[in-house]
Amino acid sequence: MGELVGIVVKGIVVVVGNLLTMIDTAELLGARRRRARAAASARGERVEYPCVLRDAELTAGRERRGRLVVGDGPVRWRSLREEPALFDPGELTMQAVDRQAVTFHAAGGRTELRLHPDEAPAVLRALGG
User: Fold this and answer.
1) Lower CB density within 10 Å: C or N end of the chain?
2) What is the pTM of this model?
């Protein structure tokens, strides 16, 4: 009887282990954070959207992770190391989209912005486009 219980327990552990590897926990946690940001935006609060930016002036032409601060006036770019700066790229054109990110380019290719597809509409509304 003990051997049978051991086999059942090992089987359950294997099944649970396999299920856990199939769950995208980062996406689950990210979805929760995105819903919280959407709710804050709907209430008219200031929201910081995570993104990756490459801009000739703001990031010296390198890709950098940071946040777009929306609300309380114009949209601002905030990186971890610097003070928030005005972000006004002009007209953005969508270049690529997948489950994880949507990429926009500004005229002339001087600016590239990547953010989550769920948050792109809110950022584009804030930028006036």
Assistant:
1) N
2) 0.76
